[in-house]
Every structure is written in C-alpha cells, then in structure tokens.
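step 4 of 6: structure.
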Amino acid sequence: DAKTTQPTSMDCAEGRAANLPCNHSTISGNEYVYWYRQIHSQGPQYIIHGLKNNETNEMASLIITEDRKSSTLILPHATLRDTAVYYCIVRVEYGGSQGNLIFGKGTKLSVKP
Amino acid sequence: NAGVTQTPKFRVLKTGQSMTLLCAQDMNHEYMYWYRQDPGMGLRLIHYSVGEGTTAKGEVPDGYNVSRLKKQNFLLGLESAAPSQTSVYFCASSQGRGYTFGSGTRLTVV
C-alpha cells in the first residue's frame, strides 16, 4: 500500500501557484519524498525529490516540514499544460524492493484559464 | 538518446493467446520495472529487476513472467492472456533515483 495521503483533486487558476499537499506520517529516516506527474495516459514524469531540506528545480519547489510528516509541491506559475495527476511517493533511494516506486491514486490537478 | 522504448504500442489479444512485451533502455540503468495501470487507478508494480539476469515479483505478479537476459532489455510475457489483463503497461528504468518511463503499451484481451 502507498504510504502517502493526497487529496483526490484540486483546481488552480492559470498563472497562479499550485500547492499540492501530501501527508506521509509514517516516513522512515532513510526515505525520500518523490513527486511524479502523469499527463493524460503518458508515462509518469519525474518532478523533484528531497530528504529533509527544501528543494527547487526548474519545474517546481518541494517544501518538507521539519518533522517530515508532510510536504507540499509548489508549481509557481501553473499553465494549462500542468494539468495532470500528481503522485507523492516515499521510498529509500537505493536498495532492492524498498527502493521501488509504489504509486497511490495521486491528486488530479486541473489548471483552468 | 531514446530513453525507454516499449514495443508494441497497441495490441489486441484473444483470451488464451500469449505475447511478449519488450522494453529497451539505452541509459545503462541497472534497475528495470514493469507496471500496469487500470482506469482511474495509479500504477501497480508487476515485476522488477535489479540487474542483468535477476528478476523479482512486485505487487501483482500473477499471470506474468519476465526475463532480463541483457542489461538493456526487460521482457514481460503473458503465457495465457485473460480479459483481466486488459490494461496499459508501462516500463521504467532507474539508476537508483529518478525513474524514466516509457510511453506505454495498451493491451486489450477479448
């Protein structure tokens, strides 16, 4: 079973920031938080990951709470092309079955004009 | 650099027929994975491999077999297809961190 809890769906206005929450209260000390997205039946796409510090790349920012029990993915200026299902996944970085990506149902983000 | 390539992209099988899905990666990744995705659901892991010559079961392995004879290829076999195996199949590869996924194979079993 997935170790994360995400809202089923969210809406965001085009050009505004999209903030996608994720709860992972049972996360272990060696598990990372990963975010992927899947745009309409395409293969999932890696977005960002982090352990305990906040992370930023060209696609998004990841904010992880100090106790690591929750995180937020931020798309700073959402566009219509960001409409997708967003998956929050916790996993160890390396090592056999514990490193496998286990997907939940994710959050369906709809960006509206 | 093609990344992860899946063949075929679409296939229709009759119940009881067999087939093999091919996944090829050109990134020299050690780890490879097969997932299936049913409507309205997230991806579920079928089988995976942590290196050439190795395979292991995932969440939903029943009815499938896999082989990893070459590092760059990971084959998924259906020996006797059933309608319950109608799904979209995704292959992925990884070197530990981010996964790279293929574009999927849409399989219908009638």
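step 5 of 6: annotate
 - The interface with chain B takes residues 2, 34, 36, 41-46, 49, 87, 93-94, 96-97, 99-106 of chain A (CB under 8 Å).
 - The mean pLDDT of chain A is 91.
step 6 of 6: archive
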